[in-house]
Amino acid sequence: MTSLFLPPYSHEQRVTYLRVIGSEWTKLRSLLSTIWCLAATVALVIGVGLAYASLRAARPPADPSTFDSTAVSLAGVQLAQLAIGVLGVLFITGEYATGSIRASLAAVPGRLPMLWGKAITFGLTTLLLAVPAVLVAFLAGQSILAAESLDTSLGQPGVMRAVLGSALFLTAVGLLGLGLGALLRNTAAGISALFGLLFAPQLVFGLLPESMSDAAYRYLPTPAGAAVSSVYRDPVTLAPWAGFGLFCLYTAIVLGLAAWQLRRRDA
Questions:
Q1: Contact assessment for residue 170 and residue 130, using Cβ atoms and an 8 Å cutoff
Q2: What contacts 258, CB < 8 A, 6 or more positions away?
Q3: Which GO terms describe its molecular function (predicted)?
Q4: 167 vs 255: CA distance, rounded Å
Q5: What is the pTM of this model?
Q6: pLDDT confidence tier of residue 2, bands split at 50, 70 and 90
Q7: pLDDT at position 13
Q8: C-beta separation of 34 from 116 below 8 A
Q9: Rounded to 5 degrees, what are φ and ψ at 65?
Q10: Of 15-19, 45-49, 216-220, which has the strongest mean pLDDT?
């Protein structure tokens, strides 16, 4: 029997961000949950927007001057945030559930490049999907509302910002879900924390006296982040970009805590 001897592999394989991002992209597109959650995100953004636009066109308002046609077309964004947030949680907790996170950390000993690679990959994927989805929802919704002369255009003040801001808001929610998943390392806990952070504060503060709840409401995660997706500013919310910046700060804090814990704890 002849033995076959192979020469040792002499090329050094350095861990770079491009290679980490490429690896995370392979993981993301290989997950079945990615297909379902991204499909649900698009379906909710477009489908709910069309359904709500059809409903409002069938029941036109008595005073068209107070009608926010942009918000009607983008009504699905508020539901789509759940689908994209859940995908953000699953993108990392799935590795902890199967134990494959150990292989990921062995390949990226520095650990943090793995987390940032996931964040960059997931954030760009979500943004590239969300932008066309909200544009289709807006244009299709306006075509329905045009039958009752309730439509608007992207050139109107605040409309383009609201449309693109909706895509940015979905991206930030997805990264928030990723951060919570990395922090808690458990799918059920991550999803529960995501829902609690997005919706529970409004319920709790709603039980307080009106003066107190109105003062705190503008600083809560969802009202702050969603302000960028509205053409007309609600008096009890922050300015659009200020509110979105605050939501991004919440997301950055969660990702920062996840990074701190990733360096301190074993997989």
A1: yes
A2: 115, 179, 180, 182, 183
A3: ABC-type transporter activity
A4: 20
A5: 0.90
A6: low
A7: 63
A8: no
A9: -65, -20
A10: 45-49
Sign of CA dihedral 6, 8, 14, 15: positive
User: What six digits make up the tokens of 188?
Assistant: 């059920």
Domain spans in the chain, listed from the N-terminal domain onward: 17-59+67-264
Residue closest to 49 by CA, chosen among 69, 74, 70: 74
Question: Tell me: the pLDDT tens digits for 46-76?
Answer: 999 999 999 988 888 877 777 889 999 999 9
pLDDT tens per residue, range 123-146: 999 999 999 999 999 999 999 999
User: Could you give the C-alpha distances from 163 to 156, 229, 232, in angstroms and in order?
Assistant: 12, 6, 13
Spatial CA neighbour of 37 closest among 85, 94, 93, 92? 85
171 to each of 48, 105, 106, 109, 155, how far by Cα in Å? Answer: 19, 25, 29, 28, 24
Taken in order 35, 38, 43, 48, the sign of the CA dihedral is positive
At position 109, the amino acid (one-letter code) is P
Among 189, 181, 195, CA closest to 96: 181
C-alpha to C-alpha distances, 60 to 45, 54, 67, 144, 149, nearest whole angstrom? 22, 10, 9, 12, 10
Q: Rounded to whole angstroms, how far apart are CA atoms 8 and 190?
A: 44
Tell me how far apart the alpha carbons of residues 260 and 37 are, in angstroms, rounded to a whole number.
28
Residue with tokens 């650990």, as numbered in its chain = 111
